[in-house]
Design goal:
Helix content of chain C: 55-70%
CATH topology of the largest domain in chain C: MetI-like fold
Number of helices of chain C: 13
Number of strands of chain C: 0
Number of helices of chain B: 14
Helix content of chain B: 55-70%
CATH class of the largest domain in chain C: Mainly Alpha
Structural class of chain B: mainly alpha
Largest sheet of chain C: none
Largest interface: B-C, 114 and 114 residues
CATH architecture of the largest domain in chain C: Orthogonal Bundle
Oligomer: heterotrimer
Largest sheet of chain B: none
Chain lengths: 411, 297, 305
């Protein structure tokens, strides 16, 4: 810990050196309002306030519905917040291009982020024309299948080790009145699940060909057909999972009313809160136990351009606080996420987090769909799969055909 | 206001014109200006920010080829027609009942009206809860011993709109009742006396005499209810999120999602332009009938 | 809409004017009361459930049924919702946004009604050329979903330098309240006997004199209606409050949204319901207190056209 502190201190010195210590109130917009998230942002806020600056909290629950219009409106309306959380995505690109956002390249260079931030792709997705426009705060991976071990063991089944075993175990669960797969019905969760299947069943090359190269012929071909077949299976398995929010779905699993859930690593907190222990009471299968690749995307902070030098100084301060090792340890522990630095050890990692860390260190990483294609394309894919998963009469063949059409015109 | 010097057309009613400046500005700058702006940019390929790159009718072609948009329109049509008819019928019925010189009129009226004081978000939340099969009405009835009782409109694509309708009616019909009640109270007692002498039954009096006399009240109600229907958004968000699948998607949500989630402003603008055109097609003829050929006071 | 001017008498809304006198236990009365009673249950059910849930402990919510009254009444959810529940980093519950909501609602209601009443008055009494065109545009405006306008309004407010402060938000509420309110006021003033207006003009009274001395005192009921409608709409507004102001001015609905939409662990339904009810206290109180005036006001305004 001592070394971290030293590093953090020197980082602080680096930014504030030469400037008079001025304090300003920095308005920070974010949508981290739930228990663990709020505790995590508090870590950053407290560390930031130590520098003498003030933190004006702009918490808005609901990322897509409200936070996005709010962020774009405030920035383009000429009354920007001091900093805003955002997921790594191409969504911010246009604001950057239009010159609304500040680049933090200088701080990054002064503090040697290039050497510290890991994996490198985190910085890449923040980079535009060679300049760094955002500060990654944590890594979340999505490609996980979470299983309640007791549900399987109590029904005379071995805990599945991969997607096929899971599918094979499902009929037995059904007989006992258990929903094999619990999924929240909100559009973003359905989209997440579909693209997890894409990576995990299809593999990273397939994922890259589809979303990276936007190869429409390939998207219409036999490899991707396998993914749609798995999606149709998943659709049968989640029949009866009539919940909206992801944590309600997790509750079905922890209660033993459902067998498993496909969800990002943030759901682990729900399992632990329900008193289950990772490895013993619940299992986690990265890449659904098939292709063990995960996305190394997560959250990042962006800084709109402002005129006030005091605010600029405060922005610099926040940027360095976020990546400071000390903050990283406490912040990611609170949030249940992985840190963005290679020199930070997790304080009390669960077996699942260790698995994730290992995969990251192996470089078994896929890019996130949000950085590969435009939000518009993500939206079109979402609409399609939402319809597909809700309607049992929607054949996988037809869905694939429409999917290929989207890919053909995607950007 | 023409006592000052030579009355020219411009200076006639000068104070009235000055007083109307806020209205004129609002009408021109906000409603006309923003609509025109929206329409113009619907012919571009604007994404997150407005851009000036002209793409002609591309956005409209894509819009009408998008299944979600078609579903949204169909949903709004079904919801709108049912909502309009039921809100008017229930509202009028309630008003007619309350108008029967009943006891506890204040109490009943308050009970029927209070939902309007709550936001659509709250309405959606509480009805989502009541209609949840696991702990809502279905569960309560089953606990009473009716094991096979089934009532979960929100989880079936075929019935979800009716689930939203139940909440929408709950919210709005009380206001309609108030408007109708006010209308009924404005009818002269003599009308009732006259029809009674003529031996016309009460229900017939309502339909033949009273309702036609309440035309202005119906117009106010129509504007309030219909504008609420077209703007339907918060209720769906809070109650169903548009699901299951796309089964309860509505146009306003399509526009919002396009603009801010998909960050495809132009596509959202194209959709809102279509909504605007539909509204104009209904309102302009009405306004023409309403104002056309009338003498000024 | 001046075609009903034959019926110039003021309505007598204070008492019911239904078709038949009442007899206490006639079959008809039994039918009327039972229909009203059944419908009252439908309208009251959600309120009942919200209230009951807000008075229960979490354990009881999980096991019990939502229609059962609490076995053990607790006011803790209310206290928590008002004062201690966290919405992001701030753990002072709804109380944080209450005064902001007041600060937003009072001037917004005042200005929107002031403008709309003058509009209605000018439209009904001083019809100038083209007035109906603007009125038609306003009515069309009533049908435009707010979401569509968010973006252009941001640009507009930026250009006039009101973006991000309270004044801008008040302006937005004034603009979006204008269509319906203007319609109400216009209908109301149209029902005022023309003779009165003409007599005043013969006496040499001018636009503003007639408005303040004659029309305003007559229009109290419709002002009550307008206040009720606007207070409800503005108090319940969330989207405008978030997009056109800054965190220090966020209304209570923002906290409500954060409480209700934050997900983690078991949802605290009792706190959610308490927060929901708390955020509705102001408009609900106004409705309970002025329900009678509401009907009277509309009776006076909306009937005649």
């Amino acid at each position: 810990m001592k070394t971290f502190k030293a590093a953090a201190l020197s980082a602080l010195m680096a930014t504030t050196a030469g400037q008079p210590m001025v304090a300003a109130d920095l308005e920070v917009t974010h949508w981290w309002t739930s228990g663990a998230e709020a505790a995590a942002i508090r870590v950053i806020a407290d560390a930031f306030k130590e520098s003498g600056n003030g933190w004006t909290d702009g918490a808005i629950a609901g990322a897509g519905g409200v936070a996005r219009p709010l962020i774009t409106s405030r920035i383009t309306g000429g009354d920007p917040m001091g900093a805003t959380q955002f997921t790594h995505s191409s969504a911010m690109r246009e604001l950057i291009e239009a010159g609304f956002m500040r680049d933090v390249t200088e701080i990054a260079e002064a503090q040697g982020w290039k050497a510290q931030i890991f994996p490198q792709s985190l910085l890449d997705s923040c980079t535009f024309e060679g300049k760094l426009y955002c500060v990654p705060s944590n890594i979340h991976s999505q490609q996980w299948l979470w299983l309640n071990n007791a549900v399987f063991e109590d029904n005379g089944l071995a805990v599945p080790q991969n997607w096929d075993e899971f599918v094979a175990a499902a009929p037995t669960l059904r007989e006992k009145g258990i929903i094999p797969l619990a999924q929240g019905q909100q559009a973003w969760q359905i989209q997440l699940m579909f693209n997890v299947l894409m990576v995990s069943i299809g593999g990273p090359e397939l994922f890259d060909k589809v979303y990276g190269e936007l190869d429409a012929d390939y998207a219409a071909g036999a490899d991707v057909a396998k993914v749609f077949k798995a999606a149709a299976e998943a659709r049968d398995l989640m029949d009866g999972s009539n919940v909206q929010a992801w944590n309600e779905a997790a509750l079905l699993v922890t209660d033993g009313r459902a067998g498993g859930q496909i969800m990002g690593d943030w759901v682990q907190g729900e399992f632990m809160q329900a008193g289950l222990k990772a490895g013993e009471d619940f299992s986690c299968l990265p890449g659904l136990g098939v292709h063990e690749y995960i996305t190394a995307a997560g959250d990042a902070f962006y800084f709109p351009k402002v005129d006030d030098p005091e605010i600029i100084a405060a922005q610099d301060e926040l940027a360095s606080v976020i990546v400071a090792p000390k903050t990283q340890v406490a912040f990611t522990a609170a949030k249940g996420a992985l840190p963005v630095r290679r020199d930070v050890e997790l304080s009390d990692p669960t077996p699942c987090m260790e698995k994730g860390m290992e995969i990251l260190k192996d470089g078994r990483i896929v890019e996130s769909i949000n950085t590969m294609v435009s939000p518009d394309t993500v939206g079109r894919v979402t609409d399609l799969v939402v319809e597909f998963f809700a309607d049992p009469d929607f054949t996988p063949e037809q869905a694939q055909e429409e999917f290929a059409e989207i890919i053909a015109t995607a950007d | 206001m023409s006592q000052s010097g030579k009355p020219t057309a411009l200076f006639k009613n000068l104070s009235a014109k000055i007083a109307a400046i806020p209205m004129v500005l609002t009408a021109l700058m906000v409603f006309v200006g923003c609509s025109v702006w929206t329409i113009i940019y619907s012919f571009t390929n604007s994404r997150l920010l407005p851009s000036a790159e002209w793409v002609g009718l591309d956005q409209y072609e894509r819009l009408w080829g998008t299944r979600r948009w078609l579903i949204s329109i169909e949903n709004l049509a079904i919801y709108g027609i049912l909502m309009l008819i039921l809100a008017l019928v229930i509202g009028f019925l309630l008003a007619a009942l309350i108008d029967q010189k009943i006891r506890f009129e204040d109490g009943f009226r308050t009970i029927f009206l209070y939902p309007y004081a709550l936001s659509f978000i709250v309405t959606g939340l509480v009805w989502q809860w009541l209609l949840n099969p696991e702990f809502g009405i279905q569960n309560a009835v089953r606990n009473l011993g009716f094991e096979t009782f089934s009532f979960d409109p929100l989880y079936n694509p075929d019935t979800v709109l009716y689930g939203v309708l139940i909440a929408g009616l709950w919210h709005t019909s009380g206001l309609v009742m108030c408007l109708m009640l006010a209308g009924l109270r404005g009818i002269d007692e003599d009308v009732w006396k006259a029809t009674k002498i003529d031996g016309i039954p009460a229900w017939k009096t309502y339909i033949v005499v009273v309702i036609p006399m309440m035309r202005p009240v119906f117009i106010t109600t129509l504007v309030l209810v219909t504008s609420g229907i077209i703007k339907l958004y918060d209720l769906v968000i809070a109650q169903t999120g548009g699901g299951p699948g796309l089964a309860s998607e509505v146009p306003a949500k399509f526009v919002f999602d396009m603009m801010f989630v998909s960050q495809n402003l132009a596509q959202g603008f194209a959709a809102s332009t279509m909504m605007l055109v539909a509204v104009i097609f209904v309102i302009i003829p009405w306004a023409y009938l309403e104002f056309g050929g009338k003498k000024h006071g | 809409m001046a075609d009903v001017t034959t019926n110039m008498r003021r309505p007598s809304p204070a008492h019911a004017s239904g078709p038949k006198p009442r007899r206490a236990f006639s079959r008809k009365n039994i039918m009327i009361y039972s229909i009203l009673f059944v419908l009252a249950v439908y309208y009251l059910l959600p309120f009942y459930v919200m209230l009951m849930t807000s008075l229960k402990g979490l354990a009881e919510i999980r096991t019990g049924n939502i229609f059962a009254p609490p076995m053990e009444i607790t006011f803790e959810p209310w206290a928590k919702a008002w004062a201690t529940v966290c919405t992001g980093l701030n753990c002072d519950g709804l109380s944080r946004g209450f005064w902001n909501s007041v600060k937003i609602t009072v001037p917004s209601v005042f200005f929107s009604i002031a403008v709309a009443s003058v509009n209605g008055y000018a439209l009904s009494m001083w019809r100038f050329k083209g007035a109906n065109v603007f009125f038609t545009i306003l009515i069309i405006g009533a049908f435009i979903p707010y979401q569509v306008m968010i973006y252009p309004i941001v640009v507009l407010l930026r250009e006039i330098g009101l973006y991000g402060n309270l004044g801008g938000l008040v302006l937005v509420h004034t603009v979006f309240g204008m269509p319906i309110l203007t319609l109400l006021f216009r209908n109301y003033f149209s029902s005022v006997p023309e003779e009165l207006f003409k007599a005043a003009r013969v006496d040499g009274a001018r636009f503003w004199t007639i408005y303040f001395k004659i029309m305003l005192p007559m229009a109290v009921p419709i002002f009550v209606v307008a206040v009720i409608l606007q207070t409800t709409a503005i108090w319940n507004d969330f989207l405008f409050g978030v997009i056109y102001t800054r965190p220090e001015n966020y209304p209570m609905t923002v906290q409500l949204n954060n409480i209700v939409n934050s997900v983690t662990g078991v949802k605290e339904y009792n706190v959610n319901m308490a927060a929901t009810l708390l955020s509705g206290v102001v408009p609900l109180t106004i409705y309970f207190l002025s329900g009678k005036l509401f009907v009277r006001g509309i009776a006076a305004g909306a009937v005649k056209g």
